[in-house]
């Protein structure tokens, strides 16, 4: 058995299949961790979602911002677009969305020594807090009133966790940190606007750092697998493993083997060439 983790697929089904073939992935005996953003923007989001659903017993998924946006479009909270509309029009749409709604925001494996969240883990959260807070918003998304809850989640979020804030404000922060963060200030305050590389002048001028380099970041004990940050690209150190290498933008789709002494990295070059806007 091999355990692999893949970065953002975003509907790039052909590249995804080529990558699985390259690593000889066998869903009957192997396991695949999917770091969120399964769909949206890529031209085969329906095919991607259908395939992942067909091997659901062999994968571990965490939800990304684009996955939440798909659920919100199904709920009538957000507008659809041409790449996710085929999912909403599919005869098994309700089945796929129901499955997606019941995927977590946080996954971990103590034996492997890894945990996974789409954008990472807030510098203000240790492992126990991450697990507790992820469970809180998972229950909301899986609940009967998830549609009304999602309406509030797309409003502007606070950039710092405040346990004394209203329930909805706390949950907005939790959701945003798990699915949308990249940079932070030294005190852990998040910046949700910047999307570039950590080396860009406009970022360094503001004194921003990658969330995982925050000097006040709490320890999570497990190495964090994450995606979401295509301009960062592949990156790893003793604490994190970043796997979004911008397949959608014509770069690469990346997997890392986790059940080895050191991560084994495999990539395929992608055909997609979306314009960055």
Fold and architecture overview:
The chain has about 280 residues and is α/β, with parallel strands linked by helices. The protein has a single domain (about 5-180, about 220-270), classed as Purple Acid Phosphatase, chain A, domain 2 (4-Layer Sandwich), CATH 3.60.21. Helices cover about 30% and strands about 15% of the residues. The chain has 9 helices and 13 strands. The chain has helices spanning about 15-20, 45-55, 65-75, 85-90, 95-100, 125-140, 145-155, 165-180, 200-205; strands spanning about 5, 30-35, 60, 105-110, 115, 185, 190, 210, 225, 235, 240, 250-255, 265-270. The strands form 3 sheets. A 5-stranded mixed sheet has the order 3-2-1-12-13, with helices on one face. It starts with a strand and ends in an 8-residue tail after the last strand.
Task: From the structure above, extract its key features.
alpha/beta; 13 strands; globular; 5-stranded mixed beta sheet; Purple Acid Phosphatase, chain A, domain 2; single chain; 277 residues
Q: In order across it, which strands form the biggest sheet?
A: 3-2-1-12-13
CA-atom Rg in angstroms? 18 Å
The overall number of domains is 1
Query: Runs with pLDDT <50, length 5+?
Result: none
Helical amount: 25-40%
Number of helical elements: 9
Structural class: alpha/beta
Distance between the termini: 40 Å
Let me know the number of strands: 13
Please name the fourth-level CATH homologous superfamily.
Metallo-dependent phosphatases
The first-level CATH class is given as Alpha Beta
What does the largest sheet look like?
Answer: 5 strands, mixed
Q: Determine the mean pLDDT.
A: 94
Just name the CATH architecture.
4-Layer Sandwich
| Helix/strand order, N-terminal first | EHEHEHHHEEHHHEEHEEEEEE
The backbone outline, from C-alpha atoms, is: globular
- CATH topology, what is it called? Purple Acid Phosphatase, chain A, domain 2
Strand proportion: 15-25%
């Amino acid at each position: 058995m091999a355990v692999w983790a893949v970065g953002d697929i975003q509907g790039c089904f052909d590249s995804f299949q080529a990558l699985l073939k390259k690593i000889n992935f066998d869903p009957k005996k192997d396991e695949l961790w999917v770091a969120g953003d399964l769909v949206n923007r890529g031209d085969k989001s329906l095919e991607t979602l259908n395939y992942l659903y067909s091997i659901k017993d062999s994968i571990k998924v965490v939800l990304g911002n684009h996955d939440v946006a798909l659920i919100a479009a199904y709920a009538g909270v957000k507008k659809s677009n041409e790449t996710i509309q085929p999912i909403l029009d599919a005869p098994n749409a309700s089945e796929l969305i129901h499955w997606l709604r019941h995927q977590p925001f946080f996954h971990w494996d103590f034996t492997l020594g890894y945990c996974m969240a789409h954008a990472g883990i807030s510098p203000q959260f240790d492992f126990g807090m991450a697990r507790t807070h992820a469970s809180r918003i998972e229950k909301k998304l899986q609940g009967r009133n998830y549609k009304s809850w999602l309406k509030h989640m797309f409003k502007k979020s606070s950039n710092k966790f405040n346990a004394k804030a209203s329930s909805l404000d706390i949950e907005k922060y939790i959701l945003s940190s798990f699915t949308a963060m990249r940079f932070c200030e030294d005190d852990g305050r998040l910046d949700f606007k910047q999307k570039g590389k950590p080396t860009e002048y406009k970022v360094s001028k503001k004194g921003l750092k990658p969330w995982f380099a925050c000097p006040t970041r709490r320890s999570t004990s497990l190495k964090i697998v994450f995606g979401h940050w295509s301009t960062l690209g592949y990156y790893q150190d003793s604490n994190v493993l970043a796997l979004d290498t911008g397949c959608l933008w014509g770069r690469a789709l990346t997997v890392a083997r986790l059940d080895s002494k050191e991560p084994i990295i495999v990539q395929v070059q992608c055909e997609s060439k979306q314009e960055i806007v």
